[in-house]
Structure prediction request, 487 residues.
Amino acid sequence: MGETVVEESEELATPGDVLGRAAEVKPGRGAYLASHNNLVYASLTGRVRTVAPPPGSPDKRPTVEVIGHKAHGAVPEPGSVVIARVTKVLSRMASADILCVGPKSVREKFTGIIRQQDVRATEIDKVDMHSSFLPGDIVRAIVLSLGDARAYYLSTAKNELGVVSAESTAGMAMEQHGTGYCNSCPVSQGKSTSNRDKKPSSVPLPMEYTVAPSIKTMPMIVSLKTCKD
Amino acid sequence: MAGKASTTTPSTYSPSPNQRKRPPLFKDGDLDWVRPDGRGFHQCRPAFFRTGAVNAAAGSAYAEFGNTKVIVSVFGPRESKKAMMYSDIGRLNCNVSYTTFASAVRGQVSDQKESSSMLHKALEGAIRLETFPKTTVDVFALVLESGGSDFPVVISCASLALADAGIMLYDLVAAVSVSCLGPNLVIDPISEEESYQDGSLVITCMPSRYEVTQLTITGEWSSARINEAMQLCLDACSKLGKVMRSCLKEAASASEEP
Prediction:
């Protein structure tokens, strides 16, 4: 993005306030255009922000937006990256509760599902759901679409998506080592069986030693560990 | 009407109003009775609004018009368990309830289910439902004290709560009711006046766009009186709209200060 001149005015707008004429401004987020009288009105309560048009565009009108003063809960939209916790794993799909949309956490959880064909990009028919996800795992996914009435459709089929944090069967948080199924990324794509079975070094404690986990609840903000090759 | 004259003795003086909301549209020098609280016929009660009353809700508002006190909480947009059908646009779910101590006589005041569906019809025209597809916005209105003209207060308070919750609206919604008492048109009636009314007219409008979202008329009206009452209400709605906007702006600037 080149330098876009952004101007934030001191005035507060309330829903229904006139922000300008359609010939002079373009409605952005928090504003809309009324077609019957060609005026741009505000939709939210907040500060008015004017963004100058990008230099190459034919449309010379600035975009006017209203920045809501209240940081209310976010709603998942197609294309947004979300953090979700897996609740149920079936043979062809996994059900997950969406906890954060982008950097904001939601007020009340939304339901999403990850279908077998959306777990990864390669060999999608050979995906084993039970070795990719376990209930309780934290997953970073992208919203594919609004889905059906019950759930949003999520996908982890990209390098930077997938299981971000998990607990082992002994109850301790697992570390990420190298790659599982994924080709080149630093994050374990899906959940590699190597993390659970084949690399004992990544399971901190042997199975018969039970430990009370220090943090049972999943963290809301999850940071990604880079792998050591 | 004889019934009315026996409750309030008709006097010949015109009361000097302590707080005029706007200049009278019609001369009321020839009308022969006084409103119990001393207001002019075309004078509304002073309105008090406050947003952010309920912490648990996404948005909330409290309104007090004389003795009518209403609190509205808005939850959403959130997933609705009841929604079995997929919908491209958002859904609105309204619920109006009265507390048991809301009326002078303990017990239910009026039909709650009807009020809920009327609130839904009044608000749905003002909300941009396409901005929150597949989710639901729940509006819960609780009438704490019913002092007359409850439903218009509920609507205005609900629209403030929606604006406080950050739901995208086309415009704020203001509502005012007018009662027909014999030859007189009385705006913003109290419960005593409502019990004697011949007819009532409730207008819900969007003041900035000058569009009406709901019009409810009960009783017997001639077209001329309907026009007169509508003009009265629309004028009052635009003034109420200004009060509501100043309340929102005050709350927004107060929350930004620290």
Observations:
- The two ends of chain B are 58 Å apart (CA to CA).
